[in-house]
Amino acid sequence: MTRSWVPGADESLFGLDNLPYGVFSRQGEAPRVGVRVGDHVLDLAPVLDDEVFAAPSLNPFLARGRTAWQETRARLQALLAAEAGGNRAAVEPHLVPLDQVTMHLPVEVADYVDFYASLEHASNLGRIFRPDEEPLKPNWRHLPVGYHGRAGTVVVSGTPIRRPCGQRMPGPSFGPSVRLDIEAELGYVVGAPTRLGERAGAFDDHVFGVTLVNDWSARDIQAWEYVPLGPFLGKSFATSISPWITPLEALRPARVAGREQDPAPMDYLRRDAPWGLDLTLRVELNGETISTPSYRNMYWTPDQMLAHMTVNGASLRTGDLFASGTISSEGAFGSLIEVTWNGAEPIKLADGTTRSFLEDGDTVTISAVAPGGIALGAVTGRITPAT
Amino acid sequence: MTRSWVPGADESLFGLDNLPYGVFSRQGEAPRVGVRVGDHVLDLAPVLDDEVFAAPSLNPFLARGRTAWQETRARLQALLAAEAGGNRAAVEPHLVPLDQVTMHLPVEVADYVDFYASLEHASNLGRIFRPDEEPLKPNWRHLPVGYHGRAGTVVVSGTPIRRPCGQRMPGPSFGPSVRLDIEAELGYVVGAPTRLGERAGAFDDHVFGVTLVNDWSARDIQAWEYVPLGPFLGKSFATSISPWITPLEALRPARVAGREQDPAPMDYLRRDAPWGLDLTLRVELNGETISTPSYRNMYWTPDQMLAHMTVNGASLRTGDLFASGTISSEGAFGSLIEVTWNGAEPIKLADGTTRSFLEDGDTVTISAVAPGGIALGAVTGRITPAT
């Protein structure tokens, strides 16, 4: 690990090998781009003398493409390194303690796609929802199943989540969801676009980085509405993401081959590089850890998702976000409907209460760590009552 | 009808009671906002002395809200009226013949939602895809079923449509779609946004106008991928819209009560005003009319779609587009899969060829007329071979 002169950085999980990007503001000032170092955010526009970082989202920087991303990262690592020497005096005034800033949505989300890439999650939901059938649909092992979500309701971590109303099962009856759930996911942020009619090229030429996602889900609304066109209002009320986008570069030590696939995927889905990721997530409910699913064994890897999403010539835009779907591993699940097995086995909390699904006032926080002493920025949200 | 001094306007279906908005450019110039009058487009920025119309999309104007939309329309009608008097000399230099301009995507599409609002279409597809079951799913008469589509591949009329590749039924096999279809739809463009957690108010406070939509569909890709999360690559390669957005105001004479609904819809879906529309569509394949479906009898009205889409607190953004789903009426269908009954009854064309689905080189044009001598701008597209 390259050591840094920034106080606390080397001892944190946000040292020089990490350096995630976000959008922050100081009181009374406009949002702008920063990089996290330890418990500080570095204000990039003055340090790098580049107006692209004075924008209120990462999009203009992401649009510059991979070479620019690499150059910027290398420059920041040099400026922040212990041996930075004379640079330190110029940089230090632009380090702002995290507790003095407000974090904003880091990316102006173009299209949002959610996949369904965990074999355990898809199997569990099949068993719960369709107990008399094969848990996996016939297509599941042939392609990464996915669908478009609502980009306009992707919100930054910390945004209160209002309990949605709608038509619910059983019934249908109308009212606030009583089966409000989470989905712990990893999201991939597209930087470099493609043109309509073209397929995407190499994964790391297009994808800038990753973020943690909580795809809030109202199971009782979803169960009634989802045939035949898929989830809609059961998901579209809010999707939270971490304020930090971790560059792919930082996750290099976390890369693993990815799970074996049977049947062998079609040519356009063939893996050319190890794009599995050895990440361990932690799901906390009101501060108590309720699950620690691993991403390592996800069935479909992100390069396969990207290849699939564009094989029909659909174009990519800067700011596209595509997520993995719920991350469940053997015995460690990324949704309450799995943890409590559809409410049959409620969670017991330390305060003596139990949970099948979320109550008003509950706070859920999802975090993740990777080998090499890297953490992703956490995503958190608190449930507020329906109106 | 108010008469206009613009040559040919009164005799066209684009007179002063119509005045749809679009984005145009003259050779070598930047795209900007114009209004169609007869076979001319009026360059609004200089005429109204307002920079909002120098933007390359309608979004900044749409964001101003209903009062501004009404004022602008009234001003334009006065400037273009036969009795405009001295105004004519100032306006006339900014009228450009349509054949001297290129039309662009009129709206920067935020989220794109597609509904499934035609009872005939939903029933027909049920009969074709699931012949052994009830054609309608249990939820269909209780709520307007819908899903999110890909906003980034909404393209303007005239954009070539490349035949998509993908995993297809039967099989799965990989290759170009051999069941490429159209869906003739009406799209609604949102102007005034809402905040997260709020429901939308009155329909005409939020929705600016309508456009024709061709939701190109690869039936063989869709059939394999769509369970359980809905259509994805079978639709996401392209969705074409007319270059013209017709203000709701222009469709006042077309408004009808809307079809009776059984069971009575829940309170939040109660109709408070007649938002059915008496429109007749025309679908042409290589210049031959193959169907003339009516919008009049659509089951779910657009105010119900808007109420449904936001009942869970999902916010609206300026530029959101939501479409009706395929418009089929009794005996007149808005998709080839219905017209040819899944290929069992191919269309015979005047050149002696037949069609079950689209061939490379085919051109499809969808147009529509409303009472009061109003036409919507047509949407057209030609199929180019897969790569």
Automatic annotation (TrEMBL), chains A, B:
InterPro entries: Fumarylacetoacetase, Fumarylacetoacetase-like_C, Fumarylacetoacetase_C_sf, Fumarylacetoacetase_N, Fumarylacetoacetase_N_sf. The keyword Magnesium applies. Residues 113-382 form the Fumarylacetoacetase-like C-terminal domain. Residues 18-106 form the Fumarylacetoacetase N-terminal domain. Its cofactor is Ca(2+); Mg(2+). The lineage of its organism: Bacteria, Bacillati, Actinomycetota, Actinomycetes, Streptosporangiales. The keyword Thylakoid does not apply. This is fumarylacetoacetase. It is an enzyme of class 3 (hydrolase). GO terms for molecular function: fumarylacetoacetase activity.
